[in-house]
Amino acid sequence: MSAGIQNALINLNAKIEALSQMADQKLQAPKKSGQPDLFSVVSGGAKKPVNANALDTKMLASRLDSAISKVEQILKEGKA
What we know:
mainly alpha
């Protein structure tokens, strides 16, 4: 396995770990009560993300599946 691929896999592993930790924190965050916060600043509503694809869950899942398949293949070839 080339050094570039190995470094990319190490970085990918670190990013996945960070993503997993952030997701765990979000899932464990206390749920908001029905009472609004009287001291919060009122915003202009939800804004669209700059990158509309950022919230396309099907596309994200497809990309992750594809990346996982490629990484699995690289790891299998590296062990052979």
